[in-house]
Amino acid sequence: MATSRTFGPEREAEPAKEARVVGSELVDTYTVYIIQVTDGSHEWTVKHRYSDFHDLHEKLVAERKIDKNLLPPKKIIGKNSRSLVEKREKDLEVYLQKLLAAFPGVTPRVLGHFLHFHFYEINGITAALAEELFEKGEQLLGAGEVFAIGPLQLYAVTEQLQQGKPTCASGDAKTDLGHILDFTCRLKYLKVSGTEGPFGTSNIQEQLLPFDLSIFKSLHQVEISHCDAQHIRGLVASKPTLATLSVRFSATSMKEVLVPEASEFDEWEPEGTALEGPVTAVIPTWQALTTLDLSHNSISEIDESVKLIPKIEFLDLSHNGLLVVDNLQHLYNLVHLDLSYNKLSSLEGLHTKLGNIKTLNLAGNLLESLSGLHKLYSLVNLDLRDNRIEQMEEVRSIGSLPCLEHVSLLNNPLSIIPDYRTKVLAQFGERASEVCLDDTVTTEKELDTVEVLKAIQKAKEVKSKLSNPEKRGGEDSRLSAAPCIRPSSSPPTVAPASASLPQPILSNQGILGDE
Fold first, then answer.
1. Do both 35 and 128 map to the same domain?
2. Residue 423: strand, helix, or coil
3. Which of 146, 171, 235, 293 is the most buried (most CB within 10 A)?
């Protein structure tokens, strides 16, 4: 595994680059030579046939006036014989080493491309990126498109800025680092996607490379995947403007993303809160952030860093390792919450943390009871598929929710009960016709069956009262003490929910992940 270079003010001298011909292979009727390039701890392989070497040599002779006789001559007869190939491997390696030694500072563009510096080497990567943005940057900014970039490219720009070299060492104005900085200052939509395993033909573990995002000054939306959140610097610089943030396959905690500086302080509090006790730091909040996707990570708890995102409306924590729901009482504006495919087994007291929630996804957890949902009076959409709910009585906990319109209970043990749909719908009483169960609209036939079930249930209750006068008298006294509240009525303090749930503006198949 390749290790990254020093990420900070103290840097070692730039190591010399090497190129070795480590073998060859026969492709169709010609031989391809395998070149291993080494740049510090980074290595990669490039494959070229002899004619590619010849083309390179012709350009270098014309552009840089190198010795015509430096390249081993062509051979027509027996060009693929083993002895000739082995000799040519050695000669071509000497040729490449001489070229690298002849240009120790700035590698000629044609040689850099031949050795794939524009894919793997810091100066080559930044030069290629600068030229791309010189040609297309204004068009990309004008179209308002998402700009996709890799961690290796960001690492290269970060390293280049720390080297303190001229921004245009090659002398080609198109490759000036200033084109990158001008573009990043104005970009609004950014996507950073790493790769799993080695990058390309190299030993570079791209997802482990450190990089700095503080060069971006105007970001509204950021999507990061397959990077190490612990190695991402400068994201907090976008707090004033960032509205949508997605970090997937990258984090082990929420703090790593939302408050990376917390590790430096014993006690901290969000800016604007009343300070109690000893506080060593006051951290600014993410003042513009309304949508946060931290799905598909290795997050085990909802920690106190949520205090820093008070304006969040859409929160996706699906596909993590959460055991309990905690700290969400700080999110007064939260309306959409995805906790699917975690390890939740209890929902007790959930209403004290989710006062205004409209959409709640709890699919793929370990839930057997729904008792914690009975006071989520603003809830409109509820997904409970792929859990462990067995008893129909559990549905009564949600049957009296006044705004609930969409419910999914697929792939729970109770979903195989005979007449499952009508028995579930019956729990909603007079609102049965308003509820869409398992993405299927309720039919008139089902509503007729629901009415029959309700009549049977009512008859059972009457019969039970008549056969037990003492119980009947006790119930009558309780009923006379308090007025009856219909299951479909909403508590007077709760405002009616809006008819439709607003959706965030997303890119590239959506920030909020799969639902």
1. no
2. helix
3. 293
Buried b (16+ CB within 10 A) or exposed e, 121-140: bbbbbbbbbbbebbeebeeb
Torsion of CA 322, 325, 331, 336, to 10 degrees: 70
Residue 216 falls inside a structural domain: yes
Q: Strands 30-39 and 17-27: what pairing?
A: antiparallel
- Answer yes or no: are the C-beta atoms of 240 and 288 closer than 8 Å: yes
Same domain, 134 and 100: no
Going by C-alpha positions, the residue among 221, 294, 207 that lies closest to residue 257 is: 294
Same domain, 80 and 140: no
pLDDT given at position 509:
39
Phi, psi for 501 (deg, rounded to 5) = -95, 125
Q: Which phi and psi angles does 240 have, rounded to 5°?
A: -65, -25
88 and 103 in a common domain = yes
The verdict on residue 362 lying in a domain is: no
Cα-flanking dihedrals φ and ψ of residue 482, to 5°?
-145, 140
Q: How many residues does the chain have?
A: 515
Helix (H) or strand (E) run with residue 232 in it: strand 232-233
Dist CA 297 CA 145 (whole Å): 26
Answer yes or no: pTM beyond 0.85: no
Classify residue 220: in a domain, yes or no. Answer: yes
Q: Is residue 24 part of a domain?
A: yes
Which of 422, 418, 445, 419 has its CA nearest to residue 432?
Answer: 422
Last residue of one domain, picked from the residues 202, 220, 250: 250
**Does residue 78 share a domain with residue 192?**
no
Q: Is the pLDDT of residue 76 over 80?
A: no
Give the H or E element holding residue 85. helix 82-102
Closest by CA position to 71, among listed 82, 83, 59: 59
The answer on 207 and 127 residing in a single domain is: yes
What's the total number of domains in the chain? 2
What is the C-alpha separation between 421 and 331, in angstroms, rounded?
35
DSSP 275: P
User: In whole angstroms, what is the distance from residue 363 CA to residue 112 CA?
Assistant: 51
Q: What is the pLDDT of residues 301-325, one digit of tens each?
A: 999 999 999 999 999 999 999 999 9
241 and 159 fall within a common domain: yes
Structure confidence by residue, pLDDT tens digits, 464-481: 778 776 554 544 443 333
Alpha-carbon span 365 to 18, nearest angstrom: 53
Structure tokens at 141: 């900014």
| Residue that has been written with the tokens 């015509």 in this structure | 68
Cα–Cα distance, 229 to 285 (Å, whole number): 19
Domain boundary among 54, 83, 115: 115
Percentage of the chain modeled with pLDDT above 90: 67
Q: Which domain holds residue 35?
A: 18-115
Q: Say yes or no: 32 and 135 in one domain.
A: no
CATH code: domain of residue 70: 3.30.1520.10
Q: What is the pLDDT of residues 142-179, one digit of tens each?
A: 999 999 999 999 999 999 998 876 666 656 789 899 99
Other Cβ atoms within 10 Å of 472 Cβ, number: 14
